[in-house]
Amino acid sequence: MEKYKGNKLQFAKKVGCDEKTIRLVFDKNQGMTMNLFFKIAFALEIEPSELIKDIKITSTNSTK
After folding, report:
1. 1, 12, 17, 62: least buried by Cβ within 10 Å?
2. Half-sphere exposure of 29 (CA within 13 A, CB side)
3. Sequence-separated contacts (24+) of 47-52 with Cβ below 8 Å
């Protein structure tokens, strides 16, 4: 959001979705489609891999 100075409406327009979708994803931690994920990366002018490079996935279901 830094690139858009916190302006979710402007960011949503660049992404190609409505502002409510952006608020739900970023403020309410709602999941997103892969299509939206790629649109967000495009709007930020970065590779999609940059958005997930530091994510660590841990399993809550432990199989022993």
Report:
1. 62
2. 0
3. none
Give φ, ψ of 57 to 5 degrees. -105, 125
Residue 8 CB: number of other CB atoms within 10 A? 19
Are the C-beta atoms of residues 45 and 39 closer than 8 Å to each other?
no
| Sequence letter at residue 26 | F
Can you read off the two tokens belonging to residue 36? 């939206």
Q: What is the pTM of this model?
A: 0.76
Rounded to 10 deg, the angle between the 8-15 and 19-27 helix axes is 110
Residue 55 CA to residue 15 CA, distance in Å, equals 22
Structure confidence at residue 62 (pLDDT): 56
